[in-house]
Design goal:
The protein is of the alpha/beta class. The chain folds into 2 domains: 144 residues, 3-Layer(aba) Sandwich (Rossmann fold); 148 residues, Aspartate/ornithine carbamoyltransferase (Rossmann fold, 3-Layer(aba) Sandwich), CATH 3.40.50. The chain has 11 helices and 9 strands. The strands form 2 sheets. The chain has a 5-stranded parallel β-sheet with strand order 7-6-5-8-9. Strands 2-1-3-4 form a 4-stranded parallel β-sheet, sandwiched between helices. Strand 3, helix 4 and strand 4 form a beta-alpha-beta unit. The longest helix has 20 residues. The chain is globular. It starts with 22 loop residues before the first helix and ends in a 16-residue tail after the last helix. The C terminus is likely disordered.
Amino acid sequence: MMKEKKKHTWRHKDLLGIENLSEEDLVLILDQATGFKEVLARPIPKVPTLRGKTIVTLFCEPSTRTRASFDLAAKRLSADTLNIAASSSSFLKGESLKDTARNLEAMKIDMIIMRHECAGAPHFLAGEVNAAVINAGDGFHEHPTQALLDIYTIREKLGKFKGVKVSIIGDIAHSRVARSNILALSKLGAEVTVCGPKTLIPAEMEKMGVRVVYGLKDALEGADVINVLRIQLERQKKALFPSTREYINLFGITKEKLDRHAKEDVVIMHPGPVNRGVEITQEVADSRYSVILDQVTNGVAVRMAVLFLMGHNKNLEQKEVPTKLHN
């Protein structure tokens, strides 16, 4: 008699990045999210699975979609939530991150969802507290739940990852979304291409196992999915391309370019916020190609899955030592 395959379980105290997750971890989250998406379609989209748990959102950078998505996900799971913004916290009075975390933990919280401008800040926090820590974006490093909702959307639309060709176009150098997506897609067997101006693509990018091209035509041809990134002018220390008009001409996604070079059933994604008329035209953002609003809906389901798995982790009290942060 054949042995029944052992069911994979979640064993991480924290969710600090895609880098530390296995393919089985990723699939577990996606499968769990499918169940929660069904919950969201109910007349009363709420379940009591995290009743009695307290979740803190600690955002030291501006955020609308990610913060609202996590907050709604927690409420849909019946958790108690506490929102803290750096602009209204003791950070302004000079309190350290370590002291802030320990004060929060003294209030008997269960999870901290953190966004910070410094790469590695959630990793530091995870080493200081017993509460579970979820990285909601740290500097240029990672944004794991954005990648998770992106791959969920790809699986929902295409039904597979093996052999799927994904082109990520735009500001790769300043994008934590790009890094997390590349890591997730590579673990799942997708073929990733990155495209953008040379000044916006990090040196030695190929070491991440991706194909690098500098012409939009090469990125569009044969792609099953096109993930368009925002130009992050606020993160750039100096001008890295001549003008916005030139960027639009060379790398902006338009219907004309898609009709000329892309597959008829190509899927267009964008993590938001969308600069309409810059990296993507309004016509494309609202077209049949676009799954941008699907990504937003899926983001709630995926974050519900993450919160559920971490909230029911029997190993939660066993502090997981974060791996060394790679540059």
